Amino acid sequence: MGVNDRHPAQNHAPAQERAPAPLREAERARLVLLEAASGGLGDAELLRLALDHLVAGLQGLGGMAHLRRPDGLGLRLVATSGLSGPLLSAWQTIEWGESVAPMAAFHGGATLWAADPVGRGSLARSFPPGVCMAAIPVPMNAGPPLAVLTVLTSTPRAGDAAQRDLARTITGWLAQRLRRVATATPDAGRAQLPEEPRSGPWLQRALRTARIGAWEWDLRGATLACDDQAQTLLGFEPGAFDGQVNTWLGAIHPEDMPWVQAVSSAESLRGRSEYSVEYRVRQPGGAYRWVQARGTVAARVDGVPVRVVGTLWDVTETRRSRDAFSRALRYMGDGFLVVDEDGRITYGNVEAERFLGASGELRGQVLWELPRARAIGVEPRFRRAASARAPIDFHARWPRTNRWYHIRLVPVPDGMTVHITDVTDRRALDAERSAAVHAATERATRIAELTSAFAEALTTQDVVKAVADRVLPPFGATGLICQLIEEKRLRVVGSTGYSDTFLSFLDNVPLPPDAPVSSPVTQVLGSRSPLFISSPEDYAKRFPEVVGYLPLSGKKAWAFLPLVASDHRTGYCVVSFDRPRHFGEEERTLLTAISGLVAQALERARLYDAEHTRAQELQRGLLPRTLPALPAVTAAARYLPAGEGMEVGGDWYDLIPLSGERVALVIGDVMGHGLSEAATMGRLRTAVHTLADLELPPDELLTHLNDLVGALGDDFYATCLYAIYDPTTSVCAFACAGHLPPAIIHPDGTVHSPGFSPDPPLGAATPPFETIEVQLPEDSILVLCTDGLIESATRDIDHGMAYLSRTLADALARTPDLLPRSPATGGGTEVAGGDGRVLGHLDRLCDTLVAALLPEQSRTQDDAALLVARTHSMTADNIVSWRLPDAPIAAGEARHHVRDQLGAWQLDELAMTTELLVSELVGNVVRHAKGPIRLRLLRSRSLICEVSDGSPTTPRIRRASDTDEGGRGLQLVSALSHRWGTRFTPTGKCIWAEQPLPTS
């Protein structure tokens, strides 16, 4: 707190009496002045006079003088210098424990220089920052200081030698004057005690014999007078006690000090006529003994106590007997309280303190004002018990610990006893017994539910989940492993409550031999009988060779159950627990019965899994493995099997390249589910490929498909949409048999579907079918899907199509890059360079649609197919066309056009073969067909030559004999081209041939 300047120990005589070195003339003059000015002054005036001189001598800002309170337990303000108002309100009284400079100087008996009050407690905060203190005690010959003078300074430095000498001089003079005033001042305000009879010698002998001492406490002067017996009881030699209250307090046991100070303060004695307290005092040998002090309080007419007179005797033996009972009561397992009629606690043991959460002394506090007692509603029950004079019992739960307590209130004379018993374990035991009865009932219900769940389970995973959900909880089990025998190996088909590391040790291991029996698994599989292990110790004792697996499993009890179906062992399952468990006879019987149900269910599920696997392989074989990469269309697709049943359906999609870089987009749905429908779908898909190779238009192709479906029988129906996209004209022509129309996304992000009335499904339709043509801008997206994607129990077809359009619009709005601009289709390298990026965007669009239209948790009753394709138009510089005369010179002109155009395209390597092809095709038209004749060259991933005429006859390649003059032209075309063919046009036919472009 500051720099100490201690007075000589127990010698506080003024400077004149200590005979120090010769005083300076200024100090002598000051003492003469003080002595002359102090005549007739009382305590307060003397303190103010000394304080004024001290403030002036130390060049202070102001000062305070505090006098020791009569009870010796604090300081009170009696004089000030240069200070007033709010600054002093907090300094009127300084309690014993306050951590401020005046009290520190009082306790230590030494001057504190340069003490900073800031941060020294709430009192110091009344002064602004930067103000320092010099606290100087006024010494007495013995005992604590009588007063403390405090000077406020503006400098944090310690006093110099002159200031220290000045402080000693003034306080020494002040101490002498205060003692002189105290001995000369009559007890003017003292109340008159009733005159006590004079004690004779016999009374003194009786008191000494009974070891009873007498004492008188002057509260105003803070002095304590004791006879020889009282001094002996307090641990002093007769005549050695100095009469100071602080000396008496110093002999008291530190643990008893707060209690003694509390009952001995002037505030506590005010209004009381009797005084009583028990405490321990230190004896000369260092031991402590118990004494009891009782007395009568005398007060002035205004009620202020001034004197206490009483007796003191040793109660150590009484306390020992009482403490033995008190200790037993205090530390017993149940809580115990004694409260008076007002609810104020007079006693509480340790358990009661713990229950009530008391951080301090319980005595004196009102029971229901404590938070925990108030929370459980003690007050109304207390008053009801007091009114009825009958005990009251109730239970209460403390929320923070979740423990239950039984509380009993028993009325007694002058109050109430409160008994508190922790009944958490008892309630838990009762609850456990009740739970066992309830569990038995619930177990039977769970077995019925388990049987029902097994009846609905299809796959092995469904069976394992049913066991985990309906078997483990009733038994309190935490782990499950099911292993089946497959090709003489044990494979884990399902588990719960085990780590992957542990399961890796068990999965796909060879089937153990029948003998020797060295593990639970071999014993269960060999004997086909269940095995119950109640603890790790039991496991280690019975199977020491495999005990190393126990730490990995983390379990403490196991029920190994064989799985036997149709007298054939199929595997085993183990139900495990995370703590040791004794398996009762009822549990063993029940678990054994459950293992039979599990075995039968797993056997059925395994047969289903095998059939399901074959069905999935069939489904994958019938659908395209990959979609072809085509210059005119970039496409992505999804197939979503049904959520239940065989998960095999009749939905399909396809992307078929046609001549002239045209592309056929197909999507269809065979009504129904199962292997038969999947096989029908495969037949239709093959038929579509065959008819597409014939270059049939959409309406004619659907007519042939309708005939095919109709020939299958009256119970077969299918929907189909067949579209042909021509990149040279950007026209998409499609026909629809009972299928959903396509959704078209334009490059600007708008979505629409062509409005038309679809024809009936295949198998129910009557041809002809309507053909719809749509002009598609560059970078348009076609979205084709089956009804399983948009139709559900809560959404019909019309709402589904509207929802599909909104979903597409929302997806494009949130992620505009789903519809990027791609480079125009020209040469093969340009298209290939953009395909990967475009395909990635289309895949993301497919995933977005599936996530929005078929949420992950939904269970759909129908499979679904989705085909998303973005179109690419051919630019004009990659398309050339010429009208040729219907005359023999046409072949020559065709060769001339080809030679010039290939030179312009820098494809001179193909000039010779292309001229031969064109010459043969044009010559064939001139000879066998009719005009008009047109030649067209297309540059894409290959070089395409097309010759059109007005004849509907189709040329066919045939084998020519050695003597035939003709018939070898188409053989030459076939030999020179990569592929060739014929397709019909509205005005006749077109013969085409493709050649691969040279690699650079």
Short characterization:
The protein contains 31 helices and 38 strands. The protein has 1000 residues and is an alpha+beta fold.
SSE order and pairing:
Blueprint: E1 3-6, H1 15-18, H2 25-37, H3 43-57, E2 62-68, E3 74-81, H4 86-89, E4 93-95, H5 101-108, E5 110-115, E6 132-138, E7 147-153, H6 161-184, H7 201-209, E8 212-218, E9 223-226, H8 228-233, H9 245-250, H10 257-264, H11 266-269, E10 274-282, E11 288-299, E12 305-314, H12 316-330, E13 335-340, E14 345-348, H13 350-356, H14 371-375, H15 378-388, E15 392-398, E16 403-412, E17 415-422, H16 424-456, H17 460-470, H18 472-475, E18 479-486, E19 489-496, H19 500-506, E20 509-510, H20 520-527, E21 531-533, H21 536-542, H22 550-553, E22 557-565, E23 568-577, H23 585-622, E24 633-640, E25 649-657, E26 663-673, H24 675-693, H25 698-712, E27 718-726, E28 731-737, E29 743-745, E30 751-752, E31 771-775, E32 781-785, H26 787-790, H27 797-814, H28 828-853, E33 864-871, E34 879-884, H29 889-904, H30 911-928, E35 933-939, E36 942-949, H31 969-976, E37 979-985, E38 988-996
Written account of the structure:
The longest helix is centred in the middle third of the chain and has 38 residues, at 585-622. 38% of the residues lie in helices and 26% in strands. It has 1000 residues and is an alpha+beta fold. The protein has a seven-stranded antiparallel beta sheet with strand order 1-5-6-7-2-3-4, with helices on both faces. Residues 7-23, 118-122, 185-200 and 822-834 have low confidence and may be disordered. It contains 31 helices and 38 strands. It is elongated. Strand 25 and strand 26 form a beta hairpin.
